[in-house]
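This section describes the prediction task in plain terms. A model, or a person checking by hand, is given the sequence of a single protein chain and must write out its three-dimensional structure as a string of tokens. No templates, partner chains or ligands are provided. The sample shown here is typical of the held-out split.
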Amino acid sequence: MIKWFRIRSIVVKEIIQIKRDIPSLAIIFIMPVFMLLLFGYAVTTDVDHITTVVWDQDKSPQSREIIQAFEQSGYFDIRYYAGDMKEITWLIDGGEAKAGFIIPPGYARDVLKGQSAGLQAIIDGSDPLIARTALSTAQMIGQVKGFALKLESLSRFGLGIKAEPGIDLRARVWYNPDMESVRFNVPGLIGLIMQNITVMLTAFALVKERERGTMEQLIITPIKPFELIIGKLIPYVGIGFMDVIVTLLIGSLWFEVPVNGSVLLLLALSLVFLLVALGLGLFISTVAKTQLQAMQMTFMIILPSVLLSGFMFPREAMPLPVQAFGAVIPLTYFLEILRGIILKGIGLQELWRNVLWLAILGVGILTLSAVRFKKKLD
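The expected answer:
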């Protein structure tokens, strides 16, 4: 027979334990709200305001008209005007622009004469979702504008619609010509796997010491806190570095996504990211009191990293406040490094901003972890 007073006693005991565990209690209420806001704003496949560079060699009213047509579509955000092909290459290589339009000299002359007006589009294919949107939108705008020119020619010269060739848009997709998703996803998976493994491993480093009661043994030793941190990080650095090599080999041999850039540079920058991720896990271990709390905090970091770093969804489609939140996530910059070196084959000259921000975040996280760590039980 059920004894309700026993059940009531258990319920009261559980409520008391929950009230004492303030961090877990906060996560219980914060997590649903956090996830709702995160998924509501970040999970979207609609791509617009693609950062675009234009090289207008004609500089005529007709060329400005076609540029305005691209910008008014809402899909292309023209932020840069290049003076030569080298500048376009530099902007797309560095990730500053995702698409580029080249208007050749004589564009206006061809339009006014009723001849085929050439126009070239260059699209960064390292992100297939953005590339497909940019390509299809550019082609559609070119067709619509070409049809408008045919109607204008019919009105001006009395020609038939088929007599006007319109605009001849020729597009080239760089880095990922077939726009295969696997070439975009594999480098991202490498970064995500590295982060998850290193953060989760390190997050339990000090928590296990507390739960097993071995922290007392460390306290009576002459080891300094900073030495203890370094000693705990070194094994995980080795594990993480082996994971880097394994994932690169699998991505290259199994998924056929070769590293087009410098492998040595990629490994060196991977080491920088490993230190950042390990510092993040160490910070969690200095805050969490139990392994359950450490696991909860780890997922609190992994979830934004997946959604806001550009791993799954383009950051350009997110609201500015959400983009700003993603800018403080180390994986955001490491994904740019991975995709830049693996897909584009670029070097430190184009990636130095990402490396700089990654280093700043790393120094900040490691410093905060060292400050929070105290060589005592509580």
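For orientation: The domain at 50-174 is CATH 3.40.1710.10 (abc type-2 transporter like fold).
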